[in-house]
User: Fold these one by one.
Assistant:
Number 1:
Amino acid sequence: MSSPANTASVAIIGGGVVGAAIFHTLTHRGVDVVLLEADSDLAYAASGTNSGILHTGFDSTPGELETQLILRSAVIRPAVFRSLGVPVSHTGAELVPHSAEDHETIRSLADNASANGVEVRIRESDGALLVTGESVTDPVAFTLGLAKAALVAGGRLELNARVSAIDDNENGLTLHLADGRTFAALVVINAAGLHADDIARMVGDDSFEIYPRKGEFFVYKLPQGRSLNHIVLPVPTKRTKGVLVFPTLDGHVVAGPTAIDLLDKDDWTVRPDAHTEILEKAAAQFPALAGLRPVASYAGLRPAGRDCNYVIGSSATTERLINVAAIRSTGLSASLGIGAYVADLLPGLGIELGEQLAPTPVEPVVPRLPWWQRTLQHAVKV
Ligand SMILES: Cc1cc2nc3c(=O)[nH]c(=O)nc-3n(C[C@H](O)[C@H](O)[C@H](O)COP(=O)(O)OP(=O)(O)OC[C@H]3O[C@@H](n4cnc5c(N)ncnc54)[C@H](O)[C@@H]3O)c2cc1C
């Protein structure tokens, strides 16, 4: 269905991986949809500054919405990745125990994984938990690819389109952009990451708050002869999930992240002390890192919900605004499941869904810089 330029059945606010996955899903159900992104390109925020790991959900709490959507994503993902030509490295992950408490944690993680239907194995020689399904991708190439395929499938994308106010009227919602443009839509999906609470407040919804939880990372080039071919996950303690080490698709090794709760949604800096903190923990698990100097660093801000997680559904004040907020730690993995879940909400709001189309094949998008350098070189200002 075609619409005048500034109207659409559905408008999505926010072009991170979550907004892009919803965009992809809806265009492949024949919905007339526009994606509005405040920045000059997609995936500069949390979606471009994470660990790039496609989690299986082995350690997620059984039954929670987050877990359901990670698992739902895993079913949809292979065909979509193939269609986008985005590489995935099926490395698997290992958690090596160092204490009696760790062995116990590993046993309970194995039980948790089996409750979620995720395949894991305990290695006889050292009791390590092997999570064969964990994999690594390029989160920026994935987000850009989703949007590219959605455009080919009939969607529209507006960059430099920062939503600054929303009017609720009889026929839907009118979005006012900071540059004076307006967009009218029957239903609006709020996938604005760190700013999802600001968007919800535009319709008087202050039911949730988003704060930034910073995660810092360091990128290394291993000396010749050394390599890492799987994700090294620490055995979690009651206090922390710890620092992980993973190989990137382009042959680097990344260690991180930290977890620092902030108030400033614009602070993407890496603290001077962060390297010592991370390297000590990372080298304890992967000794080849000891004494290495990083070739780069970056920080991501998780869009964390204050006392809430995976807030997905119609706003209590305005049914036509669907919040997709507080997608803190697993949005890359769960994004396609989130897209499918959001699509299921639309018929109840008068948006008809067409039959499910096969994912549109596109040439892979090759970002100009490695994904782990891209945001750093672009001051994120929303
Ligand atoms: C340190 C760290 C490590 C992580 N590791 C992993 C991992 O390994 N695996 C995994 O699955 N997940 C991981 N995550 C989580 C994952 O990155 C997030 O869950 C996901 O990126 C959230 O995506 P999003 O689209 O909701 O938000 P974002 O990526 O933050 O995107 C929101 C977008 O909304 C736009 N926006 C904001 N306000 C407006 C407005 N007013 N108008 C228009 N647009 C607006 C922003 O510019 C931005 O582009 C990690 C996150 C971090 C930070």
Number 2:
Amino acid sequence: MDFVGHSDFAGTGDEFLGHFTALGGLAPTERVLDIGCGIGRMARPLAGYLTPPGTYDGFDINPEGIAWCRSRYRAHPAFTFVVADLFNRRYNPAGTQSADAFTFPYADASFDFALATSVFTHLLEGEADRYVAEAARTLAPGGRLFATWFLLDDGSRAAIAAGRAGLPFLDAGEAVAVVSDEVPEEAIAFDRRWLQETLQRHGLALTAVHDGTWRGDEAGTSFQDIVVATKAGT
Ligand SMILES: C[S@@+](CC[C@H](N)C(=O)[O-])C[C@H]1O[C@@H](n2cnc3c(N)ncnc32)[C@H](O)[C@@H]1O
């Protein structure tokens, strides 16, 4: 069942709850959207943190993961999980619809905090653009998008070229780079300016970038880069 990475499941969840609060300003009473929630690595610590009227909604393209989450959190009425029948070569090759036209199954301005941990790192360019747009649509004014990325810039490109980076991205000079041409969704990196422009185009202001250790620098905040963006308005 564990298809979400090779990290310590509970340790990584606890680490990120700390980042959600310290870097993203998450409060216990907020409405949380977990984009690509997998097997509930973030739902687990959030179940011990959120209090009414706080809520949690997660969706993913992996039906087994969603079935497990529904069973595991059935005693938590504020927690809901939805499956989306979307194609991803790495995570759901049987999916029938394209994520680049997917509308998140939630109303406009439903959430205060949208998180996506290790999800944009598996989306193609059109899908990532669409997911930023949908996160912006479903966030209330003042809401935050907290997401992890592999960002391409002078520092990460130098690390990749020197073989110091945690992932050997091919064609890292491009705006979008992958580690595998056969399965691009294995890991995808985006140029930092591409992200800034995409956030801005969809009404999100870049609040902070916390560089990750994947750049070959042990001082990083987490393995992937953490990006916090805020929806305009109050
Ligand atoms: C590395 S896992 C991370 C899961 C979870 N966010 C976590 O941190 O444990 C990547 C997740 O993205 C999901 N995913 C891939 N494409 C997706 C899409 N288009 N929409 C939603 N989830 C997607 C996968 O099914 C998988 O659960």
